[in-house]
Amino acid sequence: NGAGMEHSFIEKAVSDTHISVIDSSEGIFDENGENKFHLNEEHEEHDHETEHDHEEEHDHGTNSHLWMSVSMAEIQAENILKGLVEYYPEDEKILTENTENFINELEKLKVEEDINSKEEFNVISFNEAFHYLIEENGGNITDEIEIDENQTPTAKDMVNMTENARNKNVKAIFTADDSGKIFAETIGREINVPVYVLDPITYTVSSDDYLSAMEKNIEIAKRNIERKKEELLECNIKSGIDGTVTRVNSKVGRFADDTENSKPMFVIENIDKLQMKVNVSEYDISKIKEGQKVT
Fold first, then answer.
1. Alpha-carbon gap, residue 123 to 111, rounded angstroms
2. CA 229, 233, 235 angle in degrees (round to 5)?
3. Buried-state track 62-101, b at ≥16 Cβ within 10 A, e below 16
4. Rg (CA), the chain
5. Which of 4, 78, 147, 153 has the most CB atoms at less than 10 Å from its CB?
6. pLDDT tens track of the chain, all 295 residues?
7. Are 132 and 28 in contact (CB under 8 A)?
8. What CA–CA distance (Å, rounded) separates 190 from 105?
9. Torsion of the alpha carbons at 189, 41, 200 and 148, rounded to the nearest 10
10. How far is it, in rounded angstroms, from Cα 15 to Cα 35?
């Protein structure tokens, strides 16, 4: 794969066995180590929450889950072809045909995946493998939460993560079918947002081949993100009475039930028949007359 994913063992493996290595990430990162396809990857504002003292185990500087992006998967396939042809030149024809067929199938997914929407849709990802997939399908990741299967978040951790999600107006949560799923579902219930399960396409999780798994992932991410965006755009708030809006307790982008001090979103009053109770000093009472205008 490359991009640092195998850094913990690859050098020793090459040194001990003298095996040849094909780096499928070649050409995806520039000379500064920045991803050419996601140039803001290292400077994005979303948080990597690690509530369980295992932050050192995750290098968030570079997201090496390149296969979760169709565009990057194409580059990986071309790099693998180049490397295999170098070692097996006699098989160049069949290797090239297979790679071309694979890339053609990727292109079909890539067309479906190309969604450009200016409507911000904040989501949480419980697996950093989904970084490229979610953002390429219209989601804005506010937090990537990594749950260590050997440690369980405390009640305080869950409260903090839930409040953080509510404050950032998260509208959906994405998780794998792993140890993080139960925590994703808990936060989803607390803030009343849907939780969607994606496949990180690793040997420990996936049951489908790569193309089938990616097709399902893109369909889940794209369909649900776009559907929720449409629901927000088509949402109309109607009043049960005629009148004038005299107070607004909600803010743009917030949930309908997330208002200041749990007050109603709007206060609507009939000011045509407005009644007011006014205290008048006994020294001024003689100045008050029926029909007098009030300013």
1. 23
2. 115
3. bbbbbbbbbbbbbbbbbbbbebbbeeeeeeeeebeeebee
4. 28
5. 147
6. 655 565 666 666 666 666 777 777 787 776 666 776 664 444 344 555 544 433 333 344 577 788 888 888 898 899 899 989 988 999 999 999 999 999 999 888 874 444 444 457 888 999 888 988 888 887 888 888 888 777 778 888 889 999 988 888 888 899 988 888 999 999 999 988 889 999 988 765 556 688 888 888 888 888 777 766 666 665 667 777 777 887 787 766 555 555 566 677 778 877 777 777 888 888 888 888 888 887 7
7. no
8. 40
9. -60
10. 28
Is pTM beyond 0.90? Reply is no
Residues 6+ apart with CB under 8 A from 47: 142, 143, 144, 164
Q: Return d(Cα 32, Cα 62) in angstroms, integer.
A: 11
Tens of pLDDT along 152-164?
A: 788 888 899 999 8
Task: Residue count of the chain, please give it.
Answer: 295
